[in-house]
Design goal:
It contains three helices and four strands; from the N terminus they run αββααββ. The protein is an alpha+beta fold. A four-stranded antiparallel sheet has the order 1-2-4-3, covered by helices on one side. The chain is globular.
Amino acid sequence: MLRVAVVQDEVFGAPPPLPADASDASLIKSVSDIVGIMVNRGYALKGSVEPLPPGEGNGFTVTLQGPANLWGVSSLSFRRSPVVNNFDQMVVDAYLRACGRAATVESSYGDRDVQHTWLLAA
């Protein structure tokens, strides 16, 4: 029999939201800390956050290798399902909103990884 423990009020050590006028570098550092929490908690095998190259706008790319939801999210995306389970993207989106930052995101899925690229609004 499988038993799942639910822990309420668990503290993950996530960074607090930044002010809306915080630098992009500070924002990327905080998102990197959040990705690190996901990796340390077993959601993905590895993760990285990289700023977009010069000339491609203000933003960053999150790459997760071996995320727990890879098969499901890529299958739903392939079927153009309105239902999504891209929790990693939802976490970063929520953090950006909490920081007062607007952004658009594009995602791509590979056999072993997922990439989300956020373009921050000016």
